[in-house]
Amino acid sequence: MSHMDGEREFARGTAELSEGNTLAALAHFEKAVQADSQPRYLSYLGYCIALQRGQVQKGIGLCRQSIEEDPGIADHFLNLGRILILAGNKKEALDVLRKGTAIAHHPEIKVLLETIGTRKPPVIGFLGRNNFLNKHLGIFLGRLGVR
Has domain 3-116 been given CATH number 1.25.40.10? Predict the structure, then answer.
């Protein structure tokens, strides 16, 4: 396969992915990687492998490899963040997504960050988040609408 075949398969894969057809997208991304092992192909392949086959660690590995090879593309961070959310690692996903927004303004990352949400800082900063006073004071102030 040539470079053009890889581009064509990648374009078909992204179209299928945007329509929600991850199985078809996975097949196209696999063909694209066979044609030309570009970091962006690997990133999307990793996301589809994690989503469709449940091979989360393999997907994380492919996305991390794509970030190492081409760290200037926010899509790599988006795909890794999505996989980490899928794996239940919200804290690391937030870190990865924030790094992606630092690289480039990416509307999908922004939407994903808003969907995940972030916690407000503790009411009393020098006490731990799980401190009884901090926790219940935060709940109380939240119900009053002050916080």
Answer: yes
